[in-house]
Amino acid sequence: GGAGGAGGARRGGLSPTLTALSCLLAFCISVCGSDVVELNEDEFRSIRTGIGARNMLVLFYSSPVNSKESEASIEVWKQLSSPLSGLVELGRINCDDLLDVCMS
């Protein structure tokens, strides 16, 4: 059985708490930049295995159509890109498109 709730599974998106935690627990990997990079499966795997040699925080999100929390997280991620410029690169992965990557 599940954890209960208001009937049915929640599709797409994270609670604000989980969204904040995903930002804080994102991947630290080894190059710096100021733009948010939309990662595809190959780019993420190369970063994750160390081939890409980048320091990156990765936001895992669902389409804003499916999740208002994700829409807000994307905006925060964009706003963080300037203050973090030179320290870490920001990336994001759309879990609606790359579910296998997000679940790995």
TrEMBL record:
Q: Does the keyword Signal apply?
A: yes
What's the superkingdom here? Answer: Eukaryota
| Keywords, in A-Z order | Signal
Signal peptide range: 1-33
UniProt protein name? Uncharacterized protein
- Look up and give the organism this protein is from: Hanusia phi
